[in-house]
């Protein structure tokens, strides 16, 4: 449950929030990240604020053929364990459901994978079974110089992480469950 002092809104990141999130994403091996420009230009963003301070964000991207990728959920360290990750995941999920989208996610975070299962997602470690929309979109996402640099910089940390799994949901419903994602 999210404390009363926390709000989640569907809006673009401010330039300052984009800069903060860009720097924070460098600290986790679970997300290759985005440039400040990419973050500033994203339209499907859910922003969490705690007592008016930027606390985290969920980033979603629409893919072809009616799919939405909930691409990243990150809660700043000072705001973890307050239910904000769960709130961000739920808000991003529900927004996609409201638009009749199918949902795709990738994660290494065990708590996020549990949350994905609670939503009825089919979990698989075989990315080759991803929807065609993901196969069409992934090369464009990975052709970023920033993500190439980050994948090399984070490669040792990534090797120590749990296996990356995908979640696919062709018939999503309103979100349930909880997790603190980062």
Q: Can you tell me about this structure?
A:
With 182 residues, this protein is α+β, with helices and mostly antiparallel strands. It has one domain: Aminopeptidase (3-Layer(aba) Sandwich). Helices cover 37% and strands 25% of the residues. The chain has a seven-stranded mixed β-sheet with strand order 1-2-3-4-5-7-6, sandwiched between helices. Strand 2 and strand 3 form a beta hairpin. The longest helix is centred in the middle third of the chain and has 15 residues. The C terminus is likely disordered.
The secondary-structure class comes to alpha+beta
Largest sheet: 7 strands, mixed
CATH class: Alpha Beta
Radius of gyration: 15 Å
What characteristic shape results from the CA principal axes?
A: globular
Helicity range of the residues?
25-40%
Q: In percent, how much strand structure appears in the residues?
A: 15-25%
Q: Which CATH architecture is right? A: 3-Layer(aba) Sandwich
Spans where pLDDT lies below 50 across 5 or more residues = 178-182
- Report strand order across the widest sheet: 1-2-3-4-5-7-6
Task: Work out the count of structural domains.
Answer: 1
